[in-house]
Amino acid sequence: MNRSSIEKRQQRRTLLSLAVLGLVAPLAPLAQAASPSKPVVQIWIGPSCGCCKDWIAYLQANGFQTQVDDRGNTDARERLGIKLEYGSCHTALVGGYALEGHVPAREIWRLLKERPKAIGLAVPAMPLGSPGMDGPEYRGRKDPYDVLLLAKDGSSRVYQSYP
Questions:
Q1: 79, 82, 81, 55: which is closest to 68 by C-alpha?
Q2: With 0-12 CB in 10 A as exposed, 13-18 as middle and 19+ as buried, what is 6?
Q3: Strand ranges inside 5-155, DSSP E
């Protein structure tokens, strides 16, 4: 049994015990606060970008909350220290890490778990088949692409390759 399920079981036992004592109602907000929440991803996009909106829906379907600013991403990219060569159509911030482009949720979760010393992750350009660039209008076409880990010194390395 993993730690999360053990903690949930302990919370249920505590709430059940309190229910017997008639104390659940006053403690309900505490129980909600104790449950893990979805990470919030702040995202900067252009107002008419369809693939950005598809990536946002993909993130939501994969366990993230989103906050969207549709006034463009150029300023956010610069503020977060992402070089233009790693640029794409949207920029995001989650857990103190920058995200540029169509980064898969699996790699975001990995980043948040591993917590490397880095600026964040980037999928430069807009490769077909990446999340948000995989809709029916692309007719199943896929480009191989790399998710890059962006170092604070401006360099990068491949974090994960997608064939």
A1: 55
A2: exposed
A3: 40-44, 65-69, 91-94, 97-101, 120-123, 145-150
Q: Measured over all CA atoms, what is the biggest interatomic distance in the chain, rounded to whole angstroms?
A: 61
Sheet containing 145-150: order of strands: 65-69, 40-44, 91-94, 97-101, 120-123, 145-150, 156-162
What integer pLDDT is reported at residue 11 of this predicted model? 46
SS3 90: coil
Residues near 54 by beta carbon (within 8 Å), at least 6 away in sequence = 131, 132, 133, 134, 135
CA count, 13 A, side-chain hemisphere, 4? 3
Amino acid occupying residue 49: C
Q: List per-residue pLDDT tens for the chain, 163 residues long.
A: 544 444 444 444 443 343 333 433 333 333 333 336 899 999 999 988 889 999 999 999 999 999 999 999 999 999 999 999 999 999 999 999 999 999 999 999 999 999 999 999 999 999 999 999 999 999 999 999 999 999 999 999 999 999 9
Classify each residue of 104-130 as buried b or exposed e, where b means 16 or more C-beta atoms within 10 Å of its C-beta: bbebbeebeeeeeebbbbbbbebbbbb
